[in-house]
């Protein structure tokens, strides 16, 4: 190959310099504030409310704990969305096994907290009485209202 011929071809492929068209618009780089504004508007649309007075948030992930000190915490219970904002610190805890045991105990206790089975008498009051063939709802209702009067 001829070196002079290659240099001539390389010179013809010039993309800038004398005689080239100028760029008409300056390239504008997006800043992070636009992303933050977009995030805040989306969170507002979901209906997120700020939760005050939270001093610390710990997120356990594999063998690492992500810790936020004095974070801004927002939540939307309906959308099942939690937002934790702040400066995170990644730590490897010394007593991870103890923390796992504690978390398991807490999870076992949480589902049992609000369960209280209603008594059978309460269930009977809510149910519709079964009708015998030939009876009407009115007759069954009158019969039921007469029973408490007879007992007293």
Automatic annotation (TrEMBL):
<dbReference type="Pfam" id="PF01849">
    <property type="entry name" value="NAC"/>
</dbReference>
<feature type="region of interest" description="Disordered">
    <location>
        <begin position="104"/>
        <end position="152"/>
    </location>
</feature>
<dbReference type="InterPro" id="IPR002715">
    <property type="entry name" value="Nas_poly-pep-assoc_cplx_dom"/>
</dbReference>
<dbReference type="InterPro" id="IPR038187">
    <property type="entry name" value="NAC_A/B_dom_sf"/>
</dbReference>
<keyword id="KW-0804">Transcription</keyword>
<comment type="subunit">
    <text>Part of the nascent polypeptide-associated complex (NAC).</text>
</comment>
<comment type="similarity">
    <text>Belongs to the NAC-beta family.</text>
</comment>
<dbReference type="InterPro" id="IPR039370">
    <property type="entry name" value="BTF3"/>
</dbReference>
<keyword id="KW-0805">Transcription regulation</keyword>
<feature type="compositionally biased region" description="Polar residues">
    <location>
        <begin position="106"/>
        <end position="120"/>
    </location>
</feature>
<feature type="domain" description="NAC-A/B">
    <location>
        <begin position="33"/>
        <end position="97"/>
    </location>
</feature>
<protein>
    <recommendedName>
        <fullName>Nascent polypeptide-associated complex subunit beta</fullName>
    </recommendedName>
</protein>
<feature type="compositionally biased region" description="Basic and acidic residues">
    <location>
        <begin position="141"/>
        <end position="152"/>
    </location>
</feature>
